[in-house]
Amino acid sequence: MGARLLVAGVGNIFLADDAFGPEVVRALDRRPLPTQVRVRDFGIRGMDLAYELLAGYDTALLIDAAVRGHRPGTLSLIEPDLPDRASGGCPPEAHGMDPAKVLALAAHLGDEPLPRVLVLACEPEVLPRGDEDIAPGMSATVREAVERAVAALHHVVPALLADPAATPALRRPDENAALSPAGVRRTVGSGTQDR
């Protein structure tokens, strides 16, 4: 395979700010990452991402919109708790793109441990209501965060290639915000850093 690090855009391009991950991957076409990095837009194809996580990467960096209780457009670097295969129970859901369920599915499918997983998350401003199937167009706030995410990736990725165990800082300390416990998605684990 050759790539040691996976950068995966996740999200639905038809659901407003949920398109953040795929838009960041598109923006990386103009500013490519080093050749040791595989960049791919998974959209809402959770099964594809689960299998890709089993391909021998040192680190996987998911790019996604996530409600965490911050100001819209805030970028956060999150390290979720990884599930283990030994947790038992029925097989995890194989459809959709809930990152926690995708990680559980990958752990269930593979014999080897999962790579280290980090999430570069953006606080959304516009999310569809529960009855909306399509909400086209990202908010201006999150669209502006796409270029900041590309710049953050060009800072974080070289540090991870040099040391997969590193937790590089994001570069915008002015985006540090106190986390509202009510805003934490259940898919998010312990290690977090907001910028």
How would you briefly describe this protein structure?
By secondary structure, the chain is an alpha/beta fold. 26% of the residues lie in helices and 18% in strands. Residues 173-195 have low confidence and may be disordered.
What does this structure look like?
There is one protein chain. With 195 residues, this protein is α/β, with parallel strands linked by helices. The protein is built from 4 helices and 6 strands, in the order E-H-E-H-E-E-H-E-H-E. It has helices at residues 20-28, 46-52, 99-109, 140-162; strands spanning 5-10, 37-43, 59-65, 75-79, 116-122, 191-194. Strands 2-1-3-5-4-6 form a 6-stranded mixed beta sheet, with helices on both faces. Helix 1 links the parallel strand 1 and strand 2. Helix 1 packs across helix 4 (140-162) and helix 2 packs across helix 3. The longest helix is centred in the C-terminal third of the chain and has 23 residues, at 140-162.
